[in-house]
Amino acid sequence: SKIVAHSAQAQGENQGTTKTDVLKKDFLEKVPPFPLDVYLAGYYLKSTHTSFEDYLQQLGSQHDHFVANQEDILKDVGPYTQTRYHIIALSVDHLIQLNAAYQDLLLFMSLLDAKDIPKDLLRLYVGDNNPLLVDKFLHDLKKYSLIVQDGEKTFSVHQSVQHDILCHMHKKIAPSNRTALLDAMATALIAYHDTCARCPKCDTTYLLPHYETFFKASDLTSATRALVEGEIGAIYLAAKRYTEAQQALERALTKAPRHSQLYAKMVTNLGIAHRELNACTPAEAMLKKSLELYR
Length: 295
Description:
The chain is mainly alpha-helical. Helix content is 72%, strand content 2%. Helix 6 (84-98) crosses helix 10, helix 13 (222-238) runs antiparallel to helix 14 (242-255) and helix 13 (222-238) runs parallel beside helix 15. The chain is globular. It starts with a helix and ends with a helix.
C-alpha cells in the first residue's frame, strides 16, 4: 500500500531508508492480509497520523470507538462502510440468533489455536445432551465462510478472523460469566487430553498449540491456569521435551489444588521428567510423594 509506505517514511524519516522499510514490512506483517484491512489501515494512518504501534494496539482490542473511527474513514473515501470486523461481528450475532448454544462454542474455538481444532474436543465440552450440536455448529460456520479448512476430525479458521470473533465475544459475555465458562472449558481440555493419552496409537503432541493458546486466556483463575499448565507439562513429557516439562510442572504445582488426582498426576509426571533428566534424587522424592498421594 502506497499510503502505508508514506506513513512508514514519515515515522522513520530521520532514521534512514532501511528503518523505513523495516517499519513498513513489520507493520504489514501484523495487519490481517486482506485487501480491505490493508486499504483501511493506510487511510486510517493518513487521516489520523496514528503511529504503527498505536494502530496495531487498537486493532488488537477492537474497542467500539476505534471501530467507529474506521467506519467514518471508510465513508469518507468510498461507498463501502463496513469493516471486516463489523462483518464478522454481524455473522457471529446471526449465528447466536440461530442457536444460543453457539455462543459458548464460539468463545471456546476462539481461545484455541486457529489451526486443526479437534471436533471431538467441542463434542466433549457440549456433552451427551446434544450430540448433534457441534455438527450443526460447524455446518453453520461454513455457511458464513468462517471456516478455511474442514477435515474429518479437525477444522481450521483464519487467525485474524478468530481474533475478531474473540474480541466480539468479550464484548458480549461479561467477565464474571466468562470465568465460569473457562473453568468448564479447561475441564473439557483436561478430559480430552486424558482420553487421547490413553490411546496407544494417539500422538498428543499436536494438542500443544491449543493448550498453550488457551493457557494465555485472561479470564482464567490461577488454580485453573495451573491445571492447564499441568496438562501442557504432560504433553511436553510425551514429546520428550523434558526440561520444558519440568519447568511447566514445577510452576503448575505451586498453584494447583493440592487435594486432587490431577495434583498427584503432576507430581508423578514431574518425577518422570527428573528421571529422564538424570536427576535421580528429586525424581525419587517426587515419585515417592506421588505414591503417598494416590493412597
